[in-house]
Amino acid sequence: MERFFQLKKRGTTIKTEIFAGITTFMAMAYILMVNAGMFAELGVVSYNAIYISTALSAVVGTLLMGLLADLPLAQAPGMGLNAFFVYTVCLGFGLSYANALVLVLIEGIVFVILTLTGIRAKIFDAIPEPVCMAIPAGIGLFIAFLGLQSAGIVVSDTSTGVSLASFNVIGGTVSWDTVMPMLVTIFTLIFISVLTIKKIKGSVLWGILGGTAVYYIFGFTSKGFYNDFLGSNFSFNPFTAFKEFGVEAFGKVFTKGFDFSGYLETHSASSLIILLVTTSLAFCLVDMFNTLGTLYGACSRGNILTKEGEIPSFENAMLSDAIATCCGSVCGTSTITTFVESSAGVAEGGKTGLTAIVTACMFFFAMFLSPLASLIPGCAISAALIYVGVLMINCVTNIDWNDLESSLPAFMTVAMMPFTYNISYGISFGLISYVLVKLFIGKAKEVKTETMVIAVLFGIMFFVTH
Asked: pLDDT > 90: what percent of the chain?
């Protein structure tokens, strides 16, 4: 390990790397429950199946990051990318679960090619800075909106579209059974925030577990609570999840993914082609921003950037991300990306790929804990979604809101994601508004050709697919 990871040269020890790897796992273990709960809403794949998919893809991606790139970073299905997969591509555009996996596979293969040829970094440079900075904030608002809806706190309203749910238990407007989960969500969100402020490692995971405990305590006051929650099919056998994974998720990208007959029943072949191109592009852009931003941020925090201020083993890190995404699609989950929670392990002293390998081992063991994870209630998971939204919104402070050339594209990117329930629409409106503003104020030369092409593709999407 000393020869491979050069521990002494990087000023670290095996003990430090092990603790850093465990810390990273604790900080991002919530993705196992959150991702599984999100995919289960599709109704065609179970919580257990996606739990295993999530853990397995995290093992593969994180091992690659440790062995290929020798960096203390972990990978798993990305927040935002999974929301895009479920709520936009499947429930919004009407593609099946397996069809959407094909788009993830295409993205992974394209990224492998682009990384090996060095083109991937050039594509990133084509996206204007205001849109780049705004994308995480837009995704954060979108995820928080999903969490509030999932918790039942924000509900549909015929006159205003959405409204606040009623908490009027005393007046008899709603029952305690309805209000109790919403209160647990609010408690869990506050609990996570307090733990974070107190700098408790793994605050999101501990917050979810704390919310779960409160949920079960209050469950005694709810009629038929345990029968409704556990159900007749609940099993403590960990291998039940592996069976469901093999039947419902693994390999579906090949066995059912290329059958688009369901979509073509109500859409034309041309609209399908445009949808595949633009949606794959949206997947690529979001993944690219997530990975590059996380790589730089985590490496900077851990003082492991090169003397030139660059990310060490950059190409290998990007290649790890691309290969992991291909593996993720085969496992049955959305795009794999580097997690910002890796910074927790870096802050704990992790400097080498050994940290990532320890995190991967933790995810492997977590695969056998799926029965316990399935006991986590949706209201606790919803709080984690809202909290992730809080973390992602801070990038708006870097936007010059007094300069309309920057603020308009940034605002359109942020606003259109939650308002249209669609991440790709936010990116589309951000890019298109940026290009149009530059054209009409006589600054067309400032718009790169690649940027123009991407904006045109997104524009065509609206006229063909929507």
From this structure: 33
